[in-house]
Amino acid sequence: MTVWRFHAEDLGPVELDQRPEGRLGGRRGRAGLRAHRCRRPVRRARHAGIPRDEPERADPGAGGRLLRLWESNSIVRYLAARHGAATLWEEDPARRALAERWMDWMLSELQPAMAPVLWGVVRKVPAYADPKVIGEGVKRAETLMAILDAQLADRPFLAGERFGVADITVGCGAHRWLNMPVERIERPAVQRWYAALSARPAAQAALPLPVT
Known about the structure:
There is one protein chain. The chain is of the alpha+beta class. The chain has two domains: 2-83, no CATH class; 93-205, Glutathione S-transferase Yfyf (Class Pi), Chain A, domain 2, CATH 1.20.1050. The protein contains six helices and five strands. The chain has helices spanning 28-31, 72-83, 93-122, 131-152, 165-178, 188-198; strands spanning 2-8, 12-18, 34-38, 56-59, 64-69. It has a five-stranded mixed beta sheet with strand order 3-1-2-5-4.
């Protein structure tokens, strides 16, 4: 588990808990924040006067507020809302919902489908080594990637013409899927979209990392 500490002029220190796959690589450059990486469990992060089991608490000694967050999508929403107005963050509720539905789809559909494949093929977890289990995961993931390909067939990004929060979150899932050692059906729209995400300067720090 990784803790990212961000420094923003309007907020003071912000700690964001993230796992080593590093979704933050796709957005810290976009938001223009200074960041450094601290590899330590978030519950061991100690600050004067802040009990370690409380996720949020004002820190008078920090010269600002200290906010500790976990859960990837919550971190994405927070950074987009605070630092991505008119770029990552949609002020219109309807347009924002069109993007955020894909964030939920990633958590509820695509991620669970890919999990048995990741655990069996990449992480070599014995309970998921059965080729039948891996094959069923691949089949389920392919069904979902077909949905993703259809969504991207007539638009450059998931929610329309502009890169946004949906592309950050689902892009991480696509990155994992496209870089696992399994046979995949070619999805032209997904490949074009993934290439566009990979070409973004802020993504260069995270996407070259191996899938683990």
